[in-house]
Structures are given as structure tokens and as C-alpha cells.
Q: What sequence folds into this?
């Protein structure tokens, strides 16, 4: 009898976690703020319910929040709590923000290449509305909209289009 109740409770727990998935946030060690500011997808990789993750990924972070050059987990947790009703798990302590102004007060020149060879990227593989994200390394560099090759952990290479500094999308 006790064994049946245990399996039933486990099934209820699994079912509720599917319906109400937690949002997992994996902080990058550093992110570069551009003229237009910083987006959530620039500072972390997100996992969880698709609707929640898509909403969070594109959100803009106000400059006052990272003006000291860091975005720590407590500030990020406060921002995310305002955006989603899901439980939030943050992995990492802080993100070092590289500000667009140099020490002499002049603005940095934007490089032509958004992604360079050897940069770590997230490869989003999209097929028939299903999106799977895997970590990879850029084999060659390019600018936003350029097609590049990304080597993934199983040593296979896939080609995708650069979306931003950390994200490359491959549509199959």
C-alpha cells in the first residue's frame, strides 16, 4: 500500500513540474553592453517553459542595474521574479559587464565581426517548431546574419546564422 502511494506521489510531482516548469538560468562569465543596452540573452542561457523563456530572453536590462560593471544573481533574480511567476534557479554568481565606454570617456569602436573563431556560442537547432539548444564553438567568425559553422560537443559541425554574440540558429 505504501509503495503504491509513493509512486502516485511521484507521478503527481512529475506531472506538476511539467505543467509548471521551473526557469533555469545559467549565467555567462561576462557580457558586452552595446549602445542599445543589454538584453537578458546577452547575460545568460535560459531553460524552462518555452513561452516563459522566449519572453525573458528578449527583455532589456536597464543601464542603471549594471552601471557598476556587474550584474549579480540577486539583482537578476529580482528582475526575473517581476517577469515570470515560475520558480527561478540561477546558476553562477555574477556577470561582468563590459561597458561600451573606454576609460578616457570615448566610445569603443564596434568590430565588424560579432562572433570570432573559437568563441563559445549556443547553437539553437530548429525543426518544425521544435527548438533544441546545445553549446558549441564557432569554427569561423562573422557578423549578425552571416552563416557560420559551429562545432558541437559530439564533434559534429553544423551551419547556422548568427543572431547575436552568443546565439547561432540552424533551421533544419
A:
Amino acid at each position: 500500500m505504501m509503495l503504491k502511494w509513493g509512486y502516485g506521489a511521484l507521478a503527481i510531482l512529475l506531472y506538476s513540474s511539467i505543467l509548471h516548469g521551473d526557469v533555469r538560468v545559467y549565467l555567462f562569465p561576462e557580457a558586452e553592453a552595446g549602445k542599445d543596452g543589454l538584453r537578458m540573452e546577452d547575460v545568460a542561457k535560459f531553460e524552462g517553459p518555452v513561452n516563459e523563456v522566449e519572453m525573458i530572453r528578449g527583455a532589456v536590462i536597464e543601464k542603471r542595474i549594471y552601471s557598476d560593471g556587474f550584474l549579480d544573481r540577486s539583482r537578476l533574480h529580482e528582475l526575473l521574479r517581476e517577469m515570470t511567476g515560475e520558480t527561478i534557479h540561477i546558476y553562477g554568481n555574477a556577470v561582468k559587464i563590459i561597458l561600451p565606454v573606454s576609460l578616457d570617456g570615448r566610445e569603443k569602436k564596434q568590430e565588424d565581426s560579432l562572433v570570432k573563431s573559437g568563441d563559445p556560442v549556443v547553437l539553437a537547432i530548429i525543426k518544425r517548431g521544435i527548438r533544441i539548444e546545445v553549446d558549441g564553438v564557432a569554427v569561423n567568425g562573422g557578423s549578425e546574419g552571416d552563416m557560420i559553422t559551429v562545432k558541437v560537443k559530439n564533434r559534429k559541425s553544423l551551419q547556422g546564422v548568427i543572431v547575436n554574440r552568443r546565439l547561432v540558429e540552424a533551421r533544419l
User: Anything to note?
Assistant: The longest strand covers residues 130-138. DSSP finds four helices and 13 strands in the chain. Helices lie at 2-19, 40-43, 50-57, 73-83. The chain has a mean pLDDT of 80.
